[in-house]
Amino acid sequence: MVFKKYWPLTSRTYWCPTCNVPLLSSRCYKCGGEGYEIKLREPGDVRIAFEHDINQILSSLNIREKFKPKFFYEKIILLNKTTHIDDAKEVIIDGNIFGVMLYNPFESRWEFRPSYYGALKLIEENSIETVIVRGKVKPTQIIASPTLSEKQYVVLLNTGEEPIGLAKVVSYGKMKVVKVYRQKFYFETSARKATIEDVIKANEERLNSMVQEATKFLEKMHAKISKRILVSFSGGKDSLVSLHLTLQSLGDCPLLFNNTGIELPETIRTVHEVADRYGLDLEVADAGNAFWKSVGFYGPPARDYRWCCKVAKLVPLARKILKDYPNGILNIVGQRAYESLDRARSARVWRNKWIPTIVSISPIQYWNQLAIWLYIFKNKLQVNPLYYMGFDRIGCYMCPASRLAEFEVVKKTHPALWGKWESFLYKWAKRINAPKEWVTLGLWRWLGPATPKKLLVRRHREFVENWREQYRAWLDMYIVKTNIDNEEASILFSKSIDLAKVEKACSILGNNVVRKEEVLVVENDSRDVIFTFNKRGLLIVKAKNNIIEETLDAVKLTYRSMYCTKCLSCVTLCPTGSISVSKDYEVIVNSATCIMCRACLDICPIADVMVEKIVNALILNRYDAWRRETRRKREEVAKFLEKLLRVKLAAKCPNIS
Fold it and tell me: So what's the pLDDT on residue 656?
């Protein structure tokens, strides 16, 4: 199963048949010849395979040490990351797709499915089992097999001993056809040996032109935007190249490291080593222990439940920049269009939507991995050693956007760190009554019943479908009963409402507040809405317009007031500076200066993530309630905040742009 994504931008890679090397353009600058384009799965972000990758390919082929073909170590091999049920990588050798390496999440191992070209080469090297079959074969067909081990791949030959398909042994004496070779064309190349130096020489002019374009872009943006330059450095290859390009074109500048507190030790070391090597000041937006202090409340982050980005990234960065650089910064980043769909859709120049004084630019937005690595090799840059240990990406080691194959690398290289995370996952699984597959198959990476989650579950399908029970168990205070009509709504919580805490923050809903012993009433005349909070856990909302959003805002205020984790997102980004958080974790809103914009409800990870994704799903009885049409648009909130923050900052710094 390949998950299709439609990329707005894709990268093209070519191959010189004479020099037998990959090319960034159709011209080979080593021999002067023309290369042909390799047809790759989108987005085609290829990179050069390292020794670790080659050993992984050979291991997935089950090739014994003495039978390992030498050509794997004598050629330039490319890998193109793609998707299957988990991780997958196209393998390119001698300018042809040699096959696809697939990660089997059910058996925690890599498997290799050779293409027609790959089958020919492996048969030539006597490195794969073959079986002759009579007649045609069809995908999923079960055919008899000789005595072969289970889980082994076998190339099917016709009576003329030509490859016609690929099968996998599923049990003793039986194998299942997984691929029929219909496309039997392949490119003829010189098949000569090649080195990294050969690849650099073949791409030298094209790489130089890319560097010149990036340099001109940096110089142009620097001249246009008169802000202090900071280069974001994550410890990864892309930000390293962006940094080096900046140093070559604009000179020395400080580094900005967003330390989430869940980075691998090699990354922390790399950041400090690079700063020392180039003699640069290092600015750190440090989240400290914020993730581990918060995860016991929020639960594990997920692709559709990313509270961690606000707690460990946005808030520390906002605090750092708004305090130390009130005039804003020109932030040079190592973003590339082929990393994700969001980045493919991103402009090359943009403002941070929550911190509008940060103008970010990417000189390498349209570089692929091949160009990045050639630049690194050519300039002899020292990269994070994690890349040579099997890591494709650098960042938070338990990021839910990762694949199971990547988690296996963390488990092998950093067992103590992974053990800590896995221990937490098992505790949370017990809390929500999840099967062990919720941990072992990484089902925690999705909060709701997403399609990939369903595909990974062979058993316990009912667990994925029964999301309501999970959501209730997830929360300390869940929803017992809901009733919403056109102008009135009532929400019954499983616990009493702490009126003292709600009262301290309720002026964001309305400025007319009346507190009785067991009831708190908040009125907003301009919106014609009345909120009644009852100590016994009952919330009643009466509104002439937009009853759903008024009710959900009151629910957000309730959770935010009662369960504040002191991430300080509201304090940091409130456009009027009306919010403070006490040492007892009480959110206090100054009613005299609060303009009731409610933007703090869209900033707070409790309100904007936990309530939106879990509580509101229970209230509206749909797991994707956060997609409702009446919800405030994130873009509109960000634009509104930007305008107000500009006014606020301009009062301190009149020359703010």
Answer: 47
3-state secondary structure of 161: coil
* 539 neighbors 532 (Cβ within 8 angstroms): yes
Closest listed residue to residue 363, CA positions, set 381, 375, 379: 375
For 82-88, which contacts have Cβ atoms below 8 Å and span 24 or more sequence positions? 82/2, 82/41, 83/2, 83/3, 83/5, 84/1, 84/2, 84/3, 85/1, 85/452, 85/455, 85/456, 86/403, 86/404, 86/405, 87/403, 87/404, 87/405, 87/406, 88/2
Is residue 401 within 8 Å of 384, Cβ to Cβ? no
Q: Quote the pLDDT of residue 31.
A: 97
> Under DSSP, is residue 131 helix (H, G, I), strand (E, B) or coil?
strand
251 by DSSP, 3-state: which? coil
Q: How far apart are CA 16 and CA 190, in angstroms?
A: 9
Phi, then psi, of 34 in degrees rounded to 5: -100, 140
- Range in 24-38, 289-303, 487-501, 628-642 with the lowest mean pLDDT: 628-642
Burial 265-301 (b: 16+ CB within 10 A, else e): ebbeebbeebbeeeebeebebbbeebbeebbeebbbb
How far is the C-alpha of 657 from the C-alpha of 655, rounded, in Å? 6
Residue 204 backbone dihedrals phi, psi, to 5 degrees: -55, -50
Express each pLDDT in 560-577 by its tens digit. 999 999 999 999 988 889
Residue in the structure block whose two tokens are 């940094």? 243
Residue 246's pLDDT is 98
Strand-pair partners of 256 = 232, 283
Rounded mean pLDDT, 480-495: 97
Check residue 470 and give its pLDDT.
Answer: 96
Which three-class secondary structure state does DSSP give residue 155?
Answer: strand
pTM of the model: 0.94
Q: Which residues contact 297 (CB under 8 A, 6 or more apart)?
A: 476, 563, 565
